[in-house]
Model the fold of this input.
Amino acid sequence: MRDVSLEATTGVSVVICCYNGAKRLPQTLAHLANQQVRDRLRWEVIVVDNASTDETSQVALGSWPVDAPVPLRVVYEHRRGKACARDRGFSEAKYEIVSFLDDDNWVCPEWVQSVSDIMVQHPDIGACGGYSDAICEVSPPRWFEGHKRSYAIGPWGNEEGYVPRTQGAFWGAGCTIRKSAWQQIVNNGFRPLLVGRQGSRLAAGEDSELCFALVLTGWRLWYEPSLRFQHFLPASRLNWKHLRRLHRGFGAASVMLDPYLFALKQNPKTLKEIWKRTWTFRISVTLVSLLYYSIKLPINRAMYHQTLEGNSVVLSLEYVCARLSELLRNRKKYNFSINEIQNASWIKCLKISNQ
Done:
């Protein structure tokens, strides 16, 4: 049985992880200050300044209204990386329900109350995700609609409810996580392989890794489409170069997510199944994909007169090239990482205790 106290279930800690967010924070905090919550619900706002070089901390404190319904705290995390900022947010959070936002997320007025209701009503939920709408500073490019999920935009799933354990993980923006679940896996030995975005470096995958770790230990995921928030996208991100960089980040992160995806599936029963999980097989498949997309790109351009901008094959090449580079860099530890996650004691013991 889950051991969640009454005090913990009635509290929400909203954590905003920031790197140089001085220009974006005022709007984000204004939406939080206008939350509609019932009197008995306790909540707080924490801004994690992840080694910013601008006035993020000062702007956060100055933007929070003096008559706001709850206090705001700013904490400084010197270790660069979204995962480091997230962990600092967990350690600082007073309450059991921790809702993570980026500094460009504008939540609906019912956000805090809704995440509390959902997590209290479903004590087996380790993480909950919502629906993201785009607010673009300029008119988005013609290709944006087809690639908006790369920007964490749109519905996460098709319908409300539990998420099948093998069907992915939530993006970090707007993800609400049960603190006791995080504390449980950390105390029992979970150490992330990915650190996430570091400053302007568009690394990825740290949010998926945490969701996979929760699922592997018996927690469940829940998608709630009524949890709506707007994701502000500045002009500097609405360009082809930025989207290509995002896909490079996705490709690199995929290598360290492989061990979790394998662990979520049934244990291999034949030598062929075992071989398909090795570095040798995975790099062979990646090389074949690289050859395939390298041939497909000029064919597409010739047959359909497609330009490079907006061409999905270009994005696939970015992903595959980054994955190939990361596989080569992790040649010596790839197989070890798979075995480490597959046989992790923290997964086996917690999976039993959480059932």
